[in-house]
Amino acid sequence: MSQIEAIPASAPQVSAAIELTAETLYDKCTALARNLWWSWHPEVINLFRDLDPIRWRQLDHNPIALLSEFTPERLEMRAAELVLYSRINHAYRRLKEYLAEAQTWGNTHAGVLGAKPVAYFSLEFGVHESVPIYSGGLGVLSGDHIKSASSLGVPLVAIGLFYDQGYFKQHLDGNGYQQEEYLNTKVENLPMEPARGRDGKPITVEIHTRTGRLLAKVWLMRVGRVNLYLLDCDVPSNSPEDRELTARLYGGDNRTRIRQELVSGVGGIRTLKALGITPGVYHLNEGHSGFATLEAIRERIKDDGMSFDDALREVAQRTAFTTHTPVPAGHDRFDGQLIEEHLGPLRDELGISFEQLMGLGRVEPQNQNESFCMTVLGLKLSRRANAVSNLHGHVTRRMWAHLWPWRVEEEIPIGHITNGVHIPSWLAWQMQQLYDRNFPVGWMHRMGEPQDWQRIHDVDPGELWETHYALKNLLLAFARRRVSRQCRRRGESDEAVEAARNILDPSILTIGFGRRFATYKRAMLILTDQDRLAEVVNDPNRPVQFIFAGKAHPADEPGKQLIKNIANFRHDPRFAGRIAFVEDYDINVCRHLIQGVDVWLNNPRRPLEASGTSGQKAVLNGALNLSVLDGWWAEAYDGSNGFAISRGSQHVDDAITDARDAADLYRVLEQEIIPLYYDRDIDGLPRQWIKRMMNSIGTLAWRFSADRMVADYVRNAYLPASGGLSCDMSVR
Ligand SMILES: *Cc1c(COP(=O)(O)O)cnc(C)c1O
Known about the structure:
Mean pLDDT: 94
Helix content: 40-55%
Structural class: alpha/beta
CATH class of the largest domain: Alpha Beta
Distance between the termini: 14 Å
Strand content: 5-15%
Number of domains: 3
CATH superfamily of the largest domain: Glycogen Phosphorylase B
CATH architecture of the largest domain: 3-Layer(aba) Sandwich
Bound molecules: pyridoxal-5'-phosphate
Largest sheet: 10 strands, mixed
Shape: globular
């Protein structure tokens, strides 16, 4: 791809480079706390933690909440006590420089987007555990995407919803059954402020439906150089019911769902307009926000006098659509009545009939039995669509082949860009220091490229192993603290609480499994043959232990049963102290797990895991992946950088697939993993294991980084969509 000439950004609203002019120490800390840039800078995190380590933990690592407990005077005293002045001044200066930085990758490679940025739509954003507007993988991916866009300097604004009750906090009751508790987030403790329009007034958008009108106010959250706009229906002019519309993520029924999607899509485009931002590209992260395209078409008809067909072509040219799941429940479908109720007024302005509108969401436009599918809308209204791994690309093309019945699979215009993770967010501080000591200076500015990472092979194996061992100890301390707290909350005996403080042993091979308890992820696979597992776990010379974590969707009864089964293994004497379940899987729990385990287990039913990203986070910290060859792992595994379960086979009968995969899982564990892990040299080092850790880091860290991913989106989706370059429509 040729280099695009840099054009200076001319739309000031797009840039997050507000003038920071803090004078006092307190103001500087506040400025740091109010831009989520801090969340991927360990030296700033450590700074907040040092102010009050206990409150920091109790407040879910929320610096604004922490600072609200300090007066400026007390902060000054504390800073003097701990000699924090220079650290605070240094951090503040770095943030200022970061926001003002002009020489970025994006400036060189994505300059044309400067005046007309990418508008990135997602229904959830997982930026940090203290901002609970995400549920799982999709949200964390969006968060990582905008963080890397910020670091690379790609002109991008993000649009989502603000959920004041978030997803839910998970507790297990005495029977191991999941209980959901909703948060009551205090807006004043979040790094948000009302977004202001060109007129300087806080923005409110209005959307008419056939049955009334919906209002939403808009918050601005700063994520480094990226502005994230969050729509919120909790405004007095809405009906009491509508004020609750954006209270919870994935709450309510299909009507709630379409109304949320209407607010994020149509409301999102209206927000951009009020901000004076003209996007050059619309990126729909999942079909959820697909209605944005219809509003963008309406704008062109109204403002530019275009015909519907021309406006549709223009918008589709500028739209990139990413689809994330081959599981049918992951594709929203709405019946005609819901569509007409919510999009009727917009349809009038588009000048199209009900049937024409429905046709945009149907595979066969005339088929009155088909409901309106948001994925179909996304595919029809985007010139560029992509899946999120190589294998998922194949699966998705096959899945939607009937939209292009005259084409063979290779010609279906859906490509793939494999997901990646934002390295500074997931890399343990101790491991980052190891890389700093051993990699060329400035490696963190080239994280998405392979060269520097090859230096991992020159690292002293003992140094790598000790760093990993220290992180493992931190994980086990965390797990014990959490599990004993869980026992106390359930009102269990003092002995039980005390026993929980002593579970798990750092010298034992530790396998982690943390993910949503959707049935296709098969959390129970490792427990298929319990007698065999009990033998493995209790081998006197080469024992194994497990840490599980994960939530089930509140409506997913089978998922909750799975959790119950696993959580209750702690009562089974064969597994006591060797299988732990840590409640309330979130970004914080995930971070601890992937930074401290020896092995990260992933055993979905192939090919249902579109990509998966937690294993990519594990790579960065030296954990080895043990995974079915599905999602990202199908293209990542090379025989020497981790472990594979079943060589990419699957049977039409799920029960047979499950039995085969379980058998192979035990085989790999018993014959490959355990011997390799416990094979120590005279220094006590597992040389071959460490070699594999190095292979994993050297081959995978850069490739599955969000920096590489965002650069791929820029080259293969954003630039062609913005008209900067012509390129074939697939992004394969
Ligand atoms: C990374 C992450 C995920 C996604 O992991 P998968 O591998 O897709 O299961 C889910 N939840 C949280 C909290 C995460 O941090």
